[in-house]
Amino acid sequence: MVSTAPLIGLAKPVKKPLGEVGGFIALALDTFLAAFRPPFFWRDVIEQCWFIARVSTFPAIAQSVVFNGMVVFLFGVAAVSFGAGDITGAASGLATIAQIGPVTTVFVLSGAAATAMCADLGARTIREELDAMRVLGIDPVHRMVVPRVVAILIAANLLNGVVIIAGLCADYVFSIYALNGNPGAFATSVTLLTNFPTVLISFVKASIFGVLAGLIACYKGITAGGGAQGVGNAVNETVVYTFLALLIANIIISVLTATATLAT
Amino acid sequence: MSDDTAAVVRARFPRLTRSARGWAAGWDRLGEQTAFYAKALVSIGDALRKYKAETLRVLAEMSLGVGALALIGGEVVILAVLTGSAAAIVGIFGYVQAGSLGVSAIAGFFSAYANVRLQLPLIVANGLAATIGAGATAQLGAMRISEEIDALEVMGIRSIAYLVSTRVLAGLLVVPPLYCVTFVGSVFTTRAVVVFAYHQGAGGFDHWFNTFLLPRDVLVSGFQCLVQGAIVMLIHTYYGFTASGGPAGVGEAVGRAVRASIVVSITLTFVLSLVLYGKSGDFHLSG
């Protein structure tokens, strides 16, 4: 008989991360199932949406304007030296809609909304409010997690629209007034590389990222423990994991769609 | 007389008074923050002389992480993954979109240009805020809530020098090696995507990459990251240092700090790149 002792020693450092991943997937499935179980808490969803909009609209617009300003300056300069200054609009339209819009949306959602959500749920967890709910026969996933995830899904789409519009306006202003571009050429070329599937994929991306951020925030929130430091760590891990999940999901979606959305 | 007038005005225009008071409070907070930052920067000398051990401890914690984050390799690995994945996007879009304009050969130029000037400073700004910044706010906030900071002051330890300046100093020290790792990582990722996934000739890619990789750009982008390290640590320690309202307050402070530092450091990166690169690109693609 072979001893399993060394294997157990080996399994220890692997066990915790695997347990976390498993717990997260379990929560995601629970949330999905609970979302279709009546009653649905509309009031909470609207309240959370309002809250998310309040904390993230200004940072989202600020970040979008800056990101786009840099893209226009860098690629405007490059495009002019190709002798293709007129396609600045095309490049900025594509960059804004396909990448900057969804990515900025989720940077802001995870930095501003998901952290607040995780802090709120984490504080409730360590005050044992969630346990009290379970004792009363209320499912915390159904009552707390589902409205938050639905709200962040709605808010991500709305915010994505705001970010894209703010970004395109910034592109226009920078390339016309700073790089002395041609307004007509800019406006005509915006749709050169961007078409309806690009816009659709942008919103699908924002939805996927939003749901991921919401689920990660709720998971870290309801598994928080260990006082104030514990809640702080949970919030910190929320930001890190949402950023990682977002960028990895972004690569996968971009690889799948980069060639499919080319307007030729 | 003037007190009476003020009371009448307050009673007559309650909403106006409230919004004026809100503005005044915001203005006050700005002044407080500025004073805090000045104090923290001045005490860096103290931190360097008296709290060397603490600075080194904080530095180790930042670079390799604590708790669950240490399990996945800490700050270094997280930032490398973040910038690496953004570099993969640069590769994908650089190759595919340049291809749609008929110039896919210059994907190497995109790697040297977009990675260094655009992607690295912006992603590092977000990454620093999310990882070491948020961690610092959580730690200091927890210490403030459990009255450990008051205890430090009672023991005669200068709390700002001991807690804040050491972290700002560590934030400045941790960025250069971090920048080197992320720079090499993102350059190799873009090359791998273009050469191995899209099968472009490695020689052509390297030629364009080496031609347009300007040493000055790399220095400027590294400098931007260094400034971000200092800004992020200052803002995050301020929000942690002034946290209040129990565990929920700590969580909220982390959220507010991430929001503030992302907006500030990205705006600063934008301004710095306009100032340092100027309006021209310093390269000549065509004649």
How would you characterize the overall build of this protein?
The complex is a heterodimer of chains A (264) and B (287). With 264 residues, chain A is mainly alpha-helical. Chain A has one domain (40-257). Helix content of chain A is 84%, strand content 0%. The longest helix of chain A is centred in the first third of the chain and has 41 residues, at 42-82. Chain A is elongated and about 70 Å long. In chain A, 52% of the residues are buried. Chain B is mostly helical and 287 residues long. Chain B has one domain. The longest helix of chain B is centred in the middle third of the chain and has 39 residues, at 107-145. At the A-B interface, α1, α2, α3 and α8 of A face α5, α6, α7 and α12 of B.
Oligomer: heterodimer
Mean pLDDT of chain B: 82
Summed over residues and divided by their number, the pLDDT of chain A gives a mean of 79
Q: How many β strands of chain A by DSSP?
A: 0
Largest interface: A-B, 70 and 66 residues
Uncertain regions of chain B: pLDDT < 50 for 5+ in a row? none
Distance between the termini of chain B: 77 Å
Helix share, percent of chain A:
over 70%
* Category from helices, strands and their pairing of chain A: mainly alpha
Distance between the termini of chain A: 66 Å
Topology:
The complex is a heterodimer of chains A (264) and B (287).
Chain A: H1 5-35, H2 42-82, H3 88-126, H4 129-135, H5 140-178, H6 183-189, H7 196-222, H8 227-257
Helix pairs in contact in A: 1-5, 2-3, 2-5, 3-5, 3-6, 3-7, 3-8, 5-7, 7-8
Chain B: H1 2-12, H2 14-42, H3 44-50, H4 52-64, H5 67-71, H6 74-100, H7 107-145, H8 148-154, H9 159-197, H10 202-212, H11 215-241, H12 246-277
Helix pairs in contact in B: 2-9, 3-4, 3-9, 4-6, 4-9, 6-7, 6-9, 7-9, 7-10, 7-11, 7-12, 9-11, 11-12
